Amino acid sequence: MSEEQFPEVQGGGSLILAWQIKNKRVLVVGGGEVCRAILRRGATNGWPSKVAAGRILNVLNADAKVTVVSPRDGLNPEVAYRIEKGQVDYVDRKFEPSDLDNVDMVLTAVDDPEASSQIWKLCKERRIAANIADVPPECDFYFGSVHRDGPLQVMVSTNGKGPRLANIVRRSIATNLPDNVGEAIEKVGKLRQMLRKIAPKPEEGPKRMAWMIKVSDAYSLEDLCEMNEEDMEALLQFYAPDKVPRFGCLKAMKNEAFDGSFDGSFGFFVGWG
Amino acid sequence: MSEEQFPEVQGGGSLILAWQIKNKRVLVVGGGEVCRAILRRGATNGWPSKVAAGRILNVLNADAKVTVVSPRDGLNPEVAYRIEKGQVDYVDRKFEPSDLDNVDMVLTAVDDPEASSQIWKLCKERRIAANIADVPPECDFYFGSVHRDGPLQVMVSTNGKGPRLANIVRRSIATNLPDNVGEAIEKVGKLRQMLRKIAPKPEEGPKRMAWMIKVSDAYSLEDLCEMNEEDMEALLQFYAPDKVPRFGCLKAMKNEAFDGSFDGSFGFFVGWG
Fold it and tell me: Which residues are in the Siroheme biosynthesis protein Met8 C-terminal domain (chains A, B) (predicted)?
Protein backbone atom coordinates (compact mmCIF):
# COMPACT_ATOMS: atom_id res chain seq x y z
CA MET A 1 0.00 0.00 0.00
CA SER A 2 1.62 3.25 -1.06
CA GLU A 3 1.91 6.25 1.21
CA GLU A 4 0.04 8.56 -1.15
CA GLN A 5 -3.14 6.73 -0.31
CA PHE A 6 -3.22 8.25 3.15
CA PRO A 7 -4.65 11.75 3.62
CA GLU A 8 -2.20 14.42 4.66
CA VAL A 9 -2.56 15.98 8.11
CA GLN A 10 -4.04 19.48 7.78
CA GLY A 11 -3.48 21.18 11.14
CA GLY A 12 -5.12 24.33 12.47
CA GLY A 13 -8.63 22.92 12.72
CA SER A 14 -10.80 22.10 15.69
CA LEU A 15 -12.10 18.69 16.64
CA ILE A 16 -15.76 19.09 15.79
CA LEU A 17 -17.87 16.87 17.99
CA ALA A 18 -21.50 16.10 18.69
CA TRP A 19 -21.42 16.31 22.48
CA GLN A 20 -23.96 14.13 24.29
CA ILE A 21 -25.47 16.12 27.14
CA LYS A 22 -28.92 14.57 27.33
CA ASN A 23 -29.91 14.67 31.01
CA LYS A 24 -26.48 16.03 31.94
CA ARG A 25 -26.32 19.12 34.13
CA VAL A 26 -25.10 22.31 32.46
CA LEU A 27 -24.42 25.38 34.61
CA VAL A 28 -24.85 28.75 32.90
CA VAL A 29 -23.31 31.60 34.90
CA GLY A 30 -24.71 35.01 33.99
CA GLY A 31 -27.69 35.81 31.88
CA GLY A 32 -27.34 39.25 30.48
CA GLU A 33 -24.57 41.22 32.16
CA VAL A 34 -22.26 40.92 29.16
CA CYS A 35 -24.98 42.54 27.18
CA ARG A 36 -25.37 45.62 29.34
CA ALA A 37 -21.63 46.04 29.79
CA ILE A 38 -20.78 45.85 26.12
CA LEU A 39 -23.67 48.11 25.25
CA ARG A 40 -22.24 50.61 27.76
CA ARG A 41 -18.95 50.40 25.89
CA GLY A 42 -20.60 51.61 22.75
CA ALA A 43 -21.87 48.71 20.62
CA THR A 44 -25.18 49.64 19.10
CA ASN A 45 -26.38 46.56 17.27
CA GLY A 46 -27.24 44.51 20.34
CA TRP A 47 -25.43 41.32 19.27
CA PRO A 48 -23.96 40.40 22.68
CA SER A 49 -27.29 40.40 24.46
CA LYS A 50 -27.88 37.01 22.95
CA VAL A 51 -24.79 35.24 24.27
CA ALA A 52 -26.31 33.60 27.35
CA ALA A 53 -29.71 33.17 25.68
CA GLY A 54 -28.21 31.54 22.59
CA ARG A 55 -26.14 29.12 24.60
CA ILE A 56 -29.05 28.16 26.82
CA LEU A 57 -31.05 27.35 23.68
CA ASN A 58 -28.13 25.30 22.30
CA VAL A 59 -27.97 23.10 25.38
CA LEU A 60 -31.76 22.80 25.73
CA ASN A 61 -31.90 21.61 22.11
CA ALA A 62 -29.53 18.83 23.17
CA ASP A 63 -31.80 17.85 26.08
CA ALA A 64 -29.49 19.02 28.87
CA LYS A 65 -30.70 19.96 32.34
CA VAL A 66 -29.80 23.60 32.74
CA THR A 67 -29.18 25.70 35.84
CA VAL A 68 -28.82 29.45 35.40
CA VAL A 69 -27.04 31.37 38.16
CA SER A 70 -27.48 35.13 37.74
CA PRO A 71 -28.95 38.02 39.70
CA ARG A 72 -32.47 38.72 38.44
CA ASP A 73 -31.65 42.36 37.83
CA GLY A 74 -30.54 42.79 34.24
CA LEU A 75 -31.55 39.31 33.03
CA ASN A 76 -31.81 39.05 29.25
CA PRO A 77 -35.54 38.82 28.36
CA GLU A 78 -35.13 35.47 26.59
CA VAL A 79 -33.32 34.01 29.61
CA ALA A 80 -36.07 35.41 31.87
CA TYR A 81 -38.63 33.75 29.58
CA ARG A 82 -36.89 30.33 29.81
CA ILE A 83 -36.84 30.67 33.62
CA GLU A 84 -40.49 31.69 33.78
CA LYS A 85 -41.53 28.73 31.59
CA GLY A 86 -39.59 26.33 33.83
CA GLN A 87 -37.32 25.28 30.95
CA VAL A 88 -34.29 25.91 33.18
CA ASP A 89 -33.61 25.88 36.92
CA TYR A 90 -32.74 29.26 38.33
CA VAL A 91 -30.64 30.62 41.19
CA ASP A 92 -31.09 34.37 41.75
CA ARG A 93 -27.61 35.42 42.91
CA LYS A 94 -24.00 35.63 41.78
CA PHE A 95 -21.88 32.50 41.25
CA GLU A 96 -20.57 30.54 44.25
CA PRO A 97 -18.01 27.69 43.95
CA SER A 98 -20.52 25.15 45.33
CA ASP A 99 -22.59 25.76 42.18
CA LEU A 100 -20.08 23.47 40.43
CA ASP A 101 -21.08 20.41 42.48
CA ASN A 102 -22.44 17.64 40.22
CA VAL A 103 -22.13 19.77 37.11
CA ASP A 104 -20.99 18.30 33.76
CA MET A 105 -20.40 21.48 31.77
CA VAL A 106 -20.08 25.20 32.52
CA LEU A 107 -20.87 28.15 30.25
CA THR A 108 -20.25 31.66 31.51
CA ALA A 109 -21.41 35.02 30.14
CA VAL A 110 -20.42 37.50 32.84
CA ASP A 111 -18.78 40.89 32.47
CA ASP A 112 -16.14 40.42 35.14
CA PRO A 113 -12.82 39.07 33.82
CA GLU A 114 -11.55 38.20 37.31
CA ALA A 115 -14.68 36.31 38.28
CA SER A 116 -14.61 34.56 34.89
CA SER A 117 -11.00 33.46 35.34
CA GLN A 118 -11.78 32.23 38.82
CA ILE A 119 -14.63 30.07 37.48
CA TRP A 120 -12.34 28.74 34.73
CA LYS A 121 -9.69 27.75 37.30
CA LEU A 122 -12.23 26.00 39.50
CA CYS A 123 -13.59 24.12 36.46
CA LYS A 124 -10.10 22.96 35.50
CA GLU A 125 -9.38 21.78 39.08
CA ARG A 126 -12.57 19.75 38.93
CA ARG A 127 -12.06 18.72 35.29
CA ILE A 128 -15.36 20.22 34.18
CA ALA A 129 -15.57 21.22 30.49
CA ALA A 130 -16.08 24.97 30.28
CA ASN A 131 -16.55 27.89 27.90
CA ILE A 132 -15.81 31.38 29.25
CA ALA A 133 -17.55 33.69 26.76
CA ASP A 134 -15.28 36.16 25.02
CA VAL A 135 -12.06 34.65 26.51
CA PRO A 136 -10.81 32.14 23.90
CA PRO A 137 -7.86 30.83 25.99
CA GLU A 138 -10.34 29.95 28.75
CA CYS A 139 -12.49 27.72 26.59
CA ASP A 140 -12.33 23.94 26.20
CA PHE A 141 -14.59 24.36 23.19
CA TYR A 142 -16.10 27.00 20.93
CA PHE A 143 -19.56 27.23 19.50
CA GLY A 144 -20.27 27.51 15.80
CA SER A 145 -23.21 28.44 13.66
CA VAL A 146 -25.66 25.52 13.54
CA HIS A 147 -28.36 24.70 11.00
CA ARG A 148 -31.00 22.31 12.32
CA ASP A 149 -33.55 20.31 10.36
CA GLY A 150 -35.01 17.54 12.52
CA PRO A 151 -32.30 14.94 13.12
CA LEU A 152 -29.88 16.81 10.84
CA GLN A 153 -27.42 19.26 12.35
CA VAL A 154 -24.90 21.13 10.24
CA MET A 155 -22.31 23.14 12.14
CA VAL A 156 -20.13 25.77 10.52
CA SER A 157 -16.91 26.89 12.19
CA THR A 158 -14.40 29.36 10.80
CA ASN A 159 -12.02 28.58 13.67
CA GLY A 160 -12.35 32.14 14.90
CA LYS A 161 -11.46 33.80 11.59
CA GLY A 162 -14.91 35.19 10.86
CA PRO A 163 -17.91 34.42 13.07
CA ARG A 164 -20.14 36.54 10.84
CA LEU A 165 -19.01 34.58 7.78
CA ALA A 166 -19.89 31.37 9.61
CA ASN A 167 -23.49 32.63 9.75
CA ILE A 168 -23.40 33.59 6.06
CA VAL A 169 -22.02 30.16 5.07
CA ARG A 170 -24.57 28.44 7.30
CA ARG A 171 -27.45 30.32 5.66
CA SER A 172 -26.08 29.53 2.20
CA ILE A 173 -25.83 25.83 3.10
CA ALA A 174 -29.38 25.82 4.49
CA THR A 175 -30.69 27.42 1.28
CA ASN A 176 -28.99 24.85 -0.93
CA LEU A 177 -30.03 21.74 0.99
CA PRO A 178 -33.04 19.86 -0.38
CA ASP A 179 -36.18 21.07 1.38
CA ASN A 180 -36.95 17.85 3.19
CA VAL A 181 -33.50 16.49 3.89
CA GLY A 182 -34.30 16.27 7.62
CA GLU A 183 -37.34 14.22 6.75
CA ALA A 184 -35.29 11.94 4.47
CA ILE A 185 -32.84 11.29 7.31
CA GLU A 186 -35.75 10.58 9.64
CA LYS A 187 -37.03 8.04 7.06
CA VAL A 188 -33.66 6.30 6.88
CA GLY A 189 -33.58 6.16 10.68
CA LYS A 190 -37.07 4.63 10.62
CA LEU A 191 -36.02 2.10 7.95
CA ARG A 192 -32.98 1.17 10.03
CA GLN A 193 -35.28 0.55 13.05
CA MET A 194 -37.66 -1.57 10.97
CA LEU A 195 -34.72 -3.55 9.59
CA ARG A 196 -33.45 -4.22 13.10
CA LYS A 197 -36.85 -5.75 13.89
CA ILE A 198 -36.84 -8.17 10.96
CA ALA A 199 -33.09 -8.97 11.31
CA PRO A 200 -32.33 -8.49 14.99
CA LYS A 201 -29.29 -10.76 15.41
CA PRO A 202 -26.13 -8.90 16.49
CA GLU A 203 -24.04 -11.00 14.10
CA GLU A 204 -26.10 -9.58 11.24
CA GLY A 205 -24.80 -6.10 12.12
CA PRO A 206 -22.34 -5.90 9.22
CA LYS A 207 -24.94 -7.21 6.72
CA ARG A 208 -27.54 -4.74 7.99
CA MET A 209 -25.03 -1.91 7.74
CA ALA A 210 -23.86 -2.94 4.26
CA TRP A 211 -27.47 -3.08 3.03
CA MET A 212 -28.35 0.30 4.56
CA ILE A 213 -25.30 1.74 2.78
CA LYS A 214 -26.60 0.33 -0.52
CA VAL A 215 -30.00 1.90 0.12
CA SER A 216 -28.49 5.26 1.09
CA ASP A 217 -26.33 5.26 -2.03
CA ALA A 218 -29.01 4.02 -4.43
CA TYR A 219 -31.67 6.65 -3.74
CA SER A 220 -31.57 10.39 -3.98
CA LEU A 221 -32.52 12.51 -0.98
CA GLU A 222 -35.68 13.40 -2.87
CA ASP A 223 -36.48 9.69 -3.30
CA LEU A 224 -35.94 9.07 0.41
CA CYS A 225 -38.22 11.99 1.35
CA GLU A 226 -40.96 10.54 -0.79
CA MET A 227 -40.77 7.10 0.81
CA ASN A 228 -43.70 6.17 3.05
CA GLU A 229 -44.12 3.27 5.47
CA GLU A 230 -45.65 1.07 2.76
CA ASP A 231 -42.63 1.68 0.52
CA MET A 232 -40.34 0.78 3.40
CA GLU A 233 -42.15 -2.50 4.02
CA ALA A 234 -41.76 -3.28 0.31
CA LEU A 235 -38.10 -2.30 0.36
CA LEU A 236 -37.37 -4.53 3.36
CA GLN A 237 -38.35 -7.56 1.25
CA PHE A 238 -35.06 -6.99 -0.56
CA TYR A 239 -32.88 -7.25 2.54
CA ALA A 240 -32.65 -11.08 2.59
CA PRO A 241 -31.50 -11.41 -1.06
CA ASP A 242 -29.23 -8.40 -0.37
CA LYS A 243 -30.57 -6.29 -3.20
CA VAL A 244 -31.98 -2.81 -3.61
CA PRO A 245 -34.59 -2.15 -6.32
CA ARG A 246 -34.41 1.03 -8.34
CA PHE A 247 -36.67 3.64 -6.76
CA GLY A 248 -39.09 3.69 -9.72
CA CYS A 249 -39.56 -0.07 -9.37
CA LEU A 250 -40.11 0.27 -5.63
CA LYS A 251 -42.84 2.85 -6.17
CA ALA A 252 -44.37 0.73 -8.96
CA MET A 253 -44.66 -2.26 -6.61
CA LYS A 254 -47.50 -0.50 -4.79
CA ASN A 255 -49.73 -0.68 -7.84
CA GLU A 256 -48.76 -4.06 -9.19
CA ALA A 257 -48.80 -7.59 -7.95
CA PHE A 258 -45.19 -8.36 -7.12
CA ASP A 259 -44.29 -12.02 -7.22
CA GLY A 260 -41.03 -11.67 -5.34
CA SER A 261 -38.92 -13.28 -8.02
CA PHE A 262 -35.73 -11.44 -8.86
CA ASP A 263 -34.04 -11.56 -12.21
CA GLY A 264 -30.94 -9.96 -10.77
CA SER A 265 -30.53 -7.76 -13.81
CA PHE A 266 -28.82 -4.42 -13.50
CA GLY A 267 -31.87 -2.84 -15.07
CA PHE A 268 -33.83 -3.59 -11.94
CA PHE A 269 -31.38 -3.57 -9.08
CA VAL A 270 -28.84 -1.00 -8.01
CA GLY A 271 -26.27 -0.59 -5.31
CA TRP A 272 -24.18 -3.69 -5.99
CA GLY A 273 -20.88 -4.03 -4.21
CA MET B 1 -41.39 41.84 24.29
CA SER B 2 -43.77 39.09 23.24
CA GLU B 3 -43.05 35.44 23.83
CA GLU B 4 -43.30 34.49 20.17
CA GLN B 5 -40.05 36.29 19.55
CA PHE B 6 -38.10 33.56 21.33
CA PRO B 7 -37.17 30.42 19.43
CA GLU B 8 -38.85 27.23 20.57
CA VAL B 9 -36.71 24.52 22.14
CA GLN B 10 -36.23 21.66 19.66
CA GLY B 11 -34.89 18.71 21.66
CA GLY B 12 -33.25 15.56 20.36
CA GLY B 13 -30.14 17.24 18.98
CA SER B 14 -26.53 17.11 20.07
CA LEU B 15 -24.47 20.02 21.30
CA ILE B 16 -22.13 20.49 18.36
CA LEU B 17 -18.84 21.94 19.52
CA ALA B 18 -15.45 22.88 18.13
CA TRP B 19 -13.27 21.20 20.75
CA GLN B 20 -9.88 22.82 21.34
CA ILE B 21 -7.27 20.10 21.65
CA LYS B 22 -4.22 21.91 20.32
CA ASN B 23 -1.23 20.52 22.24
CA LYS B 24 -3.58 18.44 24.42
CA ARG B 25 -2.81 14.75 24.81
CA VAL B 26 -5.22 12.33 23.13
CA LEU B 27 -4.89 8.61 23.82
CA VAL B 28 -6.04 6.27 21.06
CA VAL B 29 -6.44 2.68 22.28
CA GLY B 30 -6.36 0.14 19.47
CA GLY B 31 -5.40 0.65 15.90
CA GLY B 32 -7.01 -1.98 13.79
CA GLU B 33 -8.43 -4.83 15.83
CA VAL B 34 -12.03 -3.73 15.28
CA CYS B 35 -11.34 -4.05 11.62
CA ARG B 36 -10.14 -7.62 11.68
CA ALA B 37 -12.85 -8.69 14.09
CA ILE B 38 -15.72 -7.23 12.12
CA LEU B 39 -14.27 -8.58 8.91
CA ARG B 40 -14.22 -12.01 10.55
CA ARG B 41 -17.93 -11.55 11.31
CA GLY B 42 -18.65 -11.22 7.63
CA ALA B 43 -18.49 -7.60 6.50
CA THR B 44 -16.92 -7.39 3.11
CA ASN B 45 -16.65 -3.73 2.31
CA GLY B 46 -13.89 -2.89 4.76
CA TRP B 47 -15.55 0.19 6.31
CA PRO B 48 -14.54 -0.43 9.92
CA SER B 49 -10.83 -0.69 9.17
CA LYS B 50 -10.79 3.07 9.07
CA VAL B 51 -12.17 3.73 12.56
CA ALA B 52 -8.89 4.23 14.42
CA ALA B 53 -7.15 5.74 11.39
CA GLY B 54 -9.98 8.23 10.77
CA ARG B 55 -10.04 9.36 14.37
CA ILE B 56 -6.29 9.78 14.54
CA LEU B 57 -6.48 12.02 11.46
CA ASN B 58 -9.35 14.00 13.05
CA VAL B 59 -7.31 14.79 16.16
CA LEU B 60 -4.07 15.45 14.26
CA ASN B 61 -5.96 17.96 12.11
CA ALA B 62 -6.83 19.74 15.36
CA ASP B 63 -3.14 19.82 16.42
CA ALA B 64 -3.45 17.35 19.29
CA LYS B 65 -0.55 15.30 20.61
CA VAL B 66 -1.52 11.71 20.00
CA THR B 67 -0.44 8.51 21.71
CA VAL B 68 -1.51 5.21 20.15
CA VAL B 69 -1.51 2.13 22.39
CA SER B 70 -1.93 -1.05 20.37
CA PRO B 71 0.00 -4.24 19.73
CA ARG B 72 1.92 -3.90 16.46
CA ASP B 73 0.40 -7.10 15.12
CA GLY B 74 -2.68 -6.22 13.11
CA LEU B 75 -2.13 -2.46 13.01
CA ASN B 76 -4.15 -0.71 10.33
CA PRO B 77 -1.73 0.37 7.54
CA GLU B 78 -2.66 4.05 7.86
CA VAL B 79 -2.06 3.94 11.63
CA ALA B 80 1.27 2.19 11.01
CA TYR B 81 2.14 4.94 8.52
CA ARG B 82 1.40 7.72 11.06
CA ILE B 83 3.58 5.92 13.61
CA GLU B 84 6.42 5.43 11.15
CA LYS B 85 6.32 9.11 10.15
CA GLY B 86 6.48 10.17 13.82
CA GLN B 87 3.10 11.92 13.58
CA VAL B 88 1.96 10.05 16.70
CA ASP B 89 3.66 8.54 19.73
CA TYR B 90 3.34 4.78 19.93
CA VAL B 91 3.23 2.14 22.65
CA ASP B 92 3.41 -1.42 21.30
CA ARG B 93 1.23 -3.33 23.77
CA LYS B 94 -2.31 -3.58 25.09
CA PHE B 95 -3.88 -0.82 27.20
CA GLU B 96 -2.84 -0.38 30.85
CA PRO B 97 -4.62 1.96 33.30
CA SER B 98 -1.48 4.08 33.75
CA ASP B 99 -1.83 5.05 30.07
CA LEU B 100 -4.54 7.47 31.25
CA ASP B 101 -2.10 9.59 33.27
CA ASN B 102 -2.01 13.20 31.97
CA VAL B 103 -4.42 12.42 29.16
CA ASP B 104 -7.12 14.90 28.08
CA MET B 105 -9.22 12.71 25.79
CA VAL B 106 -9.53 8.99 25.05
CA LEU B 107 -10.68 7.30 21.84
CA THR B 108 -10.90 3.53 21.70
CA ALA B 109 -11.29 1.18 18.76
CA VAL B 110 -10.78 -2.27 20.26
CA ASP B 111 -12.75 -5.42 19.66
CA ASP B 112 -13.17 -6.42 23.29
CA PRO B 113 -16.41 -5.16 24.88
CA GLU B 114 -15.17 -5.90 28.41
CA ALA B 115 -11.85 -4.12 27.96
CA SER B 116 -13.71 -1.21 26.32
CA SER B 117 -16.13 -0.89 29.24
CA GLN B 118 -13.24 -1.01 31.68
CA ILE B 119 -11.51 1.87 29.88
CA TRP B 120 -14.79 3.83 29.85
CA LYS B 121 -15.20 3.38 33.62
CA LEU B 122 -11.63 4.46 34.31
CA CYS B 123 -12.13 7.54 32.12
CA LYS B 124 -15.29 8.48 33.99
CA GLU B 125 -13.55 8.06 37.38
CA ARG B 126 -10.85 10.41 36.17
CA ARG B 127 -13.30 12.70 34.35
CA ILE B 128 -11.57 12.22 30.99
CA ALA B 129 -13.75 12.78 27.91
CA ALA B 130 -13.99 9.52 25.97
CA ASN B 131 -15.47 7.85 22.91
CA ILE B 132 -15.71 4.06 22.91
CA ALA B 133 -16.14 3.17 19.23
CA ASP B 134 -19.31 1.29 18.41
CA VAL B 135 -20.76 1.63 21.96
CA PRO B 136 -22.96 4.77 21.87
CA PRO B 137 -23.85 4.74 25.61
CA GLU B 138 -20.13 4.80 26.39
CA CYS B 139 -19.42 7.98 24.47
CA ASP B 140 -19.26 11.55 25.77
CA PHE B 141 -19.34 12.64 22.16
CA TYR B 142 -19.88 11.35 18.64
CA PHE B 143 -18.03 12.17 15.47
CA GLY B 144 -19.74 13.47 12.34
CA SER B 145 -18.84 13.90 8.72
CA VAL B 146 -16.56 16.93 8.33
CA HIS B 147 -15.82 19.06 5.27
CA ARG B 148 -12.63 21.06 5.56
CA ASP B 149 -11.50 24.01 3.47
CA GLY B 150 -8.67 25.87 5.20
CA PRO B 151 -10.08 27.60 8.29
CA LEU B 152 -13.62 26.49 7.39
CA GLN B 153 -15.01 23.32 8.93
CA VAL B 154 -18.53 22.12 8.23
CA MET B 155 -19.72 19.18 10.30
CA VAL B 156 -22.78 17.12 9.43
CA SER B 157 -24.47 15.00 12.07
CA THR B 158 -27.64 12.95 11.60
CA ASN B 159 -27.69 12.21 15.33
CA GLY B 160 -27.18 8.53 14.59
CA LYS B 161 -30.08 8.19 12.11
CA GLY B 162 -27.98 7.73 9.00
CA PRO B 163 -24.17 7.97 9.06
CA ARG B 164 -24.02 7.27 5.32
CA LEU B 165 -26.49 10.07 4.64
CA ALA B 166 -24.27 12.39 6.69
CA ASN B 167 -21.52 11.71 4.14
CA ILE B 168 -23.92 12.30 1.25
CA VAL B 169 -25.13 15.58 2.74
CA ARG B 170 -21.54 16.64 3.47
CA ARG B 171 -20.52 15.98 -0.14
CA SER B 172 -23.56 17.86 -1.43
CA ILE B 173 -22.71 20.83 0.83
CA ALA B 174 -19.06 20.79 -0.32
CA THR B 175 -20.17 20.80 -3.98
CA ASN B 176 -22.48 23.77 -3.48
CA LEU B 177 -20.07 25.96 -1.52
CA PRO B 178 -18.23 28.65 -3.53
CA ASP B 179 -14.87 27.27 -4.66
CA ASN B 180 -12.72 29.58 -2.56
CA VAL B 181 -14.84 30.04 0.53
CA GLY B 182 -11.97 28.85 2.74
CA GLU B 183 -9.76 31.48 1.14
CA ALA B 184 -12.42 34.18 1.67
CA ILE B 185 -12.57 33.31 5.36
CA GLU B 186 -8.77 33.41 5.53
CA LYS B 187 -8.92 36.89 4.00
CA VAL B 188 -11.44 38.09 6.57
CA GLY B 189 -9.24 36.68 9.34
CA LYS B 190 -6.27 38.56 7.84
CA LEU B 191 -8.30 41.79 7.60
CA ARG B 192 -9.34 41.40 11.24
CA GLN B 193 -5.65 41.04 12.22
CA MET B 194 -4.67 44.12 10.20
CA LEU B 195 -7.53 46.07 11.78
CA ARG B 196 -6.36 45.09 15.25
CA LYS B 197 -2.98 46.60 14.40
CA ILE B 198 -4.35 49.98 13.32
CA ALA B 199 -6.98 50.06 16.11
CA PRO B 200 -5.49 48.04 18.94
CA LYS B 201 -7.33 49.50 21.96
CA PRO B 202 -9.47 46.95 23.82
CA GLU B 203 -12.23 49.55 24.26
CA GLU B 204 -12.51 49.70 20.46
CA GLY B 205 -13.52 46.01 20.46
CA PRO B 206 -17.21 46.69 19.82
CA LYS B 207 -16.45 49.24 17.07
CA ARG B 208 -14.00 46.81 15.41
CA MET B 209 -16.55 44.04 15.58
CA ALA B 210 -19.39 46.22 14.27
CA TRP B 211 -17.23 47.32 11.32
CA MET B 212 -16.13 43.75 10.53
CA ILE B 213 -19.81 42.77 10.49
CA LYS B 214 -20.52 45.56 7.99
CA VAL B 215 -17.67 44.32 5.79
CA SER B 216 -18.80 40.69 6.01
CA ASP B 217 -22.36 41.66 5.12
CA ALA B 218 -21.45 44.12 2.35
CA TYR B 219 -19.32 41.81 0.22
CA SER B 220 -20.11 38.50 -1.38
CA LEU B 221 -17.90 35.49 -0.71
CA GLU B 222 -16.64 35.87 -4.27
CA ASP B 223 -15.70 39.51 -3.56
CA LEU B 224 -13.86 38.49 -0.40
CA CYS B 225 -11.91 35.79 -2.26
CA GLU B 226 -10.80 38.34 -4.80
CA MET B 227 -9.48 40.78 -2.18
CA ASN B 228 -5.69 41.09 -1.99
CA GLU B 229 -3.50 42.81 0.62
CA GLU B 230 -3.56 46.09 -1.29
CA ASP B 231 -7.37 46.05 -1.32
CA MET B 232 -7.37 45.39 2.42
CA GLU B 233 -5.07 48.35 3.08
CA ALA B 234 -7.46 50.51 1.03
CA LEU B 235 -10.48 49.10 2.85
CA LEU B 236 -8.96 49.83 6.27
CA GLN B 237 -8.97 53.55 5.42
CA PHE B 238 -12.73 53.32 5.87
CA TYR B 239 -12.60 52.02 9.43
CA ALA B 240 -12.19 55.44 11.13
CA PRO B 241 -15.19 57.04 9.41
CA ASP B 242 -17.06 53.77 10.03
CA LYS B 243 -17.95 53.17 6.41
CA VAL B 244 -17.60 50.36 3.89
CA PRO B 245 -17.22 51.19 0.19
CA ARG B 246 -19.01 49.11 -2.39
CA PHE B 247 -16.68 46.43 -3.67
CA GLY B 248 -16.50 47.89 -7.19
CA CYS B 249 -15.37 51.21 -5.72
CA LEU B 250 -12.78 49.46 -3.56
CA LYS B 251 -11.30 47.70 -6.59
CA ALA B 252 -11.41 50.96 -8.61
CA MET B 253 -9.34 52.71 -5.93
CA LYS B 254 -6.30 50.75 -7.03
CA ASN B 255 -6.28 52.40 -10.42
CA GLU B 256 -7.35 55.88 -9.48
CA ALA B 257 -6.07 58.63 -7.24
CA PHE B 258 -8.32 58.51 -4.22
CA ASP B 259 -8.59 61.73 -2.26
CA GLY B 260 -10.15 60.21 0.83
CA SER B 261 -13.17 62.49 0.83
CA PHE B 262 -16.48 60.74 1.44
CA ASP B 263 -19.77 61.99 0.14
CA GLY B 264 -21.65 59.56 2.37
CA SER B 265 -24.07 58.72 -0.41
CA PHE B 266 -25.71 55.32 -0.51
CA GLY B 267 -24.42 54.94 -4.02
CA PHE B 268 -20.93 54.64 -2.70
CA PHE B 269 -21.16 53.15 0.76
CA VAL B 270 -22.92 50.08 1.99
CA GLY B 271 -23.43 48.28 5.23
CA TRP B 272 -25.03 51.09 7.24
CA GLY B 273 -26.60 50.30 10.58
Answer: 178-245
B65 and B171 co-located in one domain:
no
- B235 in the same domain as B191: yes
- Find, among B202, B212, B266, the residue nearest to B238 by Cα: B212
- Give pLDDT tens digits along chain A (273 positions): 555 689 999 999 999 999 999 999 999 998 865 444 444 444 433 334 568 899 999 999 999 999 999 998 878 899 999 999 999 999 999 999 999 999 999 999 887 888 999 999 999 999 999 999 878 899 999 999 999 999 999 999 998 888 888 998 999 999 999 888 899 999 999 999 999 999 988 778 788 888 998 998 898 878 888 888 899 999 999 999 999 999 888 888 876 545 544 444 444 555 443
Residues in chain B with CB shorter than 8 Å from the CB of A172 are: 176-177, 221
Q: Is residue A59 a part of any domain in this protein? A: yes
Q: Of chain B residues 247-266, which have a CB less than 8 A from chain A?
A: none
Q: Contact B126/A127, CB-based, under 8 Å? A: yes
Q: Within an 8 Å CB–CB cutoff, is residue B181 touching chain A?
A: yes
Put simply, the answer to whether A18 touches B16 (Cβ < 8 Å) is: yes
Q: Which helix (H) or strand (E) holds B67?
A: strand B65-69
How many pairs of residues across A and B have Cβ atoms under 8 Å apart? 295
Q: Does this complex have an ipTM over 0.85?
A: no
| B132 & B226 share domain | no
Claim to verify: residue B209 and residue B253 sit in the same structural domain = yes
